[in-house]
Amino acid sequence: MNRNLYTILICVAAVSACGEERNDPGPELSVIVEEFSAAQCERIFECCDTAERQTLFSAEIEEAACPGQLTSFFSAFATPAWESALSRGSIRVEADAQDGCLEALRARNCAELSPGQAASIMTIPACRDFLAPQLATSSFCREDFECVSGFCARAPGAEEGSCKLVPQAGSPCEESSCGNGSGLYCEAEACTPQRPSGEPCTRNDECVSQNCVSDANGARVCGQAPVTCQGD
């Protein structure tokens, strides 16, 4: 599957956790998927020229075909996981917040439409309100956004973990267990602040920009965050 498109969808795709009673799923998920896809595509075509869209999608794509293509990926990778999460009670769809999420998608900053940041809806507060986490601290979890705290602590390679408070600098960690978007990465078994541009690095997660690059001398340093779309 196209890596960049996968990143666009992954933050809404990976949702499932614990609980036995099925929740009311609220709005028809297929309708939600179509509306989110259309909103994503609307902003992409406002922000990105042809070359930029090729970088984002790794292929040429026509505006009329964009919603259908994103809907297909949502249906394959997001809808089953949403249904699993809803049935297990780890998230709840807040129908009243759906319009706010759609409006926020249509107003997205063009610089956020890059392969690195990938227009994930879960970084938008209005969309986090739409997919409301239901798991309290110490509950079993599979993904960060199932937890009210915003952090699912998992051992490396484990599918499940437990909801905990977001780690702070100096908190103990194993590999990538400092939490997405926390501004921290795991080094020497302790959560460590990510490094600004120009600082030495060996991998992307060490950098605030998530972009460890080679400088003119061949040394690895934190670069600027990659920007694909230059519109407004």
Descriptive overview:
This is Dickkopf N-terminal cysteine-rich domain-containing protein. It comes from Microvenator marinus. The chain is flat. It folds into three domains: 3-134, no CATH class; 135-193, no CATH class; 195-225, no CATH class. The protein has helices at 3-13, 29-47, 50-57, 66-77, 79-88, 98-106, 125-130; strands at 91-93, 131-133, 140-141, 152-153, 161-163, 184-187, 190-193, 212-214, 220-222. With 232 residues, it is an alpha+beta fold. The chain is built from seven helices and nine strands. Helices cover 32% and strands 12% of the residues. Strand 6 and strand 7 form a beta hairpin.
Labels describing this entry:
7 helices, alpha+beta, two-stranded antiparallel sheet, flat, single chain, 3-stranded antiparallel beta sheet, 232 residues, disordered N terminus
Contiguous uncertain segments of 5+ residues: 1-26
Major beta sheet, strand line-up: 3-5-4
Q: How would you classify the helix and strand content by structural class? A: alpha+beta
β-strand amount: 5-15%
The total of helices stands at: 7
Write the layout of secondary structure elements.
Blueprint: H1 3-13, H2 29-47, H3 50-57, H4 66-77, H5 79-88, E1 91-93, H6 98-106, H7 125-130, E2 131-133, E3 140-141, E4 152-153, E5 161-163, E6 184-187, E7 190-193, E8 212-214, E9 220-222
Antiparallel strand pairs: 1-2, 3-5, 4-5, 6-7, 8-9
Helix pairs in contact: 1-4, 2-4, 2-6
Organism: Microvenator marinus
Protein name: Dickkopf N-terminal cysteine-rich domain-containing protein
